[in-house]
Amino acid sequence: MSTLGWFLLLLVAAAVAWVVLRGRRATPPPRPALGRDDLTSLGLSEVRAREPGASPVRESSASPARAAAPPRPGPARPAPAAAPPALARPSGPVADGEVSPDATLWPDGAEPARHLLAALAAHAGGAAGVLRYDAEADAYVAEAAAGARLPEPLPADRCPLHRAPQDGELTLLDEPSGMGPFTGDVLVRALAAPPAARAFLVVAPAHADAAVGQVGPFADLLAGLSDLAPAAPPVPARPSRAAVIREEQEAAEVEGRPLAFALVTLADAEEILAREAPDEVAEAEAGLRRRLADHPAVRRTEPFGDLLVGAFLDLDPDGVAAWCESTSASAPAVFIGAVAPVDGAAADVRAAAADALHDAYEQQRAQVVAG
């Protein structure tokens, strides 16, 4: 090759090398990978900045990679807000029900009773429990509860349950103070009649009216599971207390005569009941009913609870006041709550008489209210 040929070949090679080197200098240097703080500064949340398929588990601040890296400057991020504790659902023994380790009503096992109480508490939207009178402690002790913790023993002298009738009727406690976690409208029903021990199903529902129909069937099921008393022979069904009042109201209206209603109990009824002597209770109640029936104005007497007698009288309000004074003056001492005349709904009449009887307890004398 001639000298000119070699010169042209060198020029072409130099041009190619110059183009290659210029192209390399034009390529921008690689950018460092963005850390978590850099992504945050760009407006991306931790969730959106996470790579696809990454685990949602929060990283630990003690991981080796983060411990070795120096802190990067950047805007501070607020800590995620904690969930409000009020949103947490009850769990554990309160929601599922719990049984006292000293429970005596279920010697064959308390699991069925616990499940029944948990179901009732869930249906009623409140608390449900079984309380039994302990004569040695003179208090009502919780055998089991659901929707609330097991309460401490409730002293009988301050517990309205001690005045609740031990029959098959559902009772709404007028003053539920002294009932531990059972507050508001408290419904109670005895699991068995005397001579069985005083044991009650107690329910504090969110809405008493909606829960009334639920308590009775659950009480029957719990009674069947409980060791309360030997099975008694069936007895003819007795009309409800409200039905008895309505019956007397209709009769008085047809016959055109006055009608008054009184609830009467012995002043020492609580002491008699606390001794848990069935024969003594039966004798005291029979004596009280004979004493009331001996008065010519008393048309009818009916049991309205333990040592609590309902008396229907052919008297106007003035005559009822005189009857209360004469009845209270004789021994043994009694408390009377009377309504005269008997007008309005039967349930309202009974409630008014119960309020008057409560006032009689407080004032230590007979109490008469207008119907």
TrEMBL record:
Residues 70-83 have a biased composition (Pro residues). Residues 26-107 are annotated as: Disordered. It comes from the Bacteria. Residues 54-69, 84-93 have a biased composition (Low complexity). This is Uncharacterized protein. It comes from Rubrivirga litoralis.
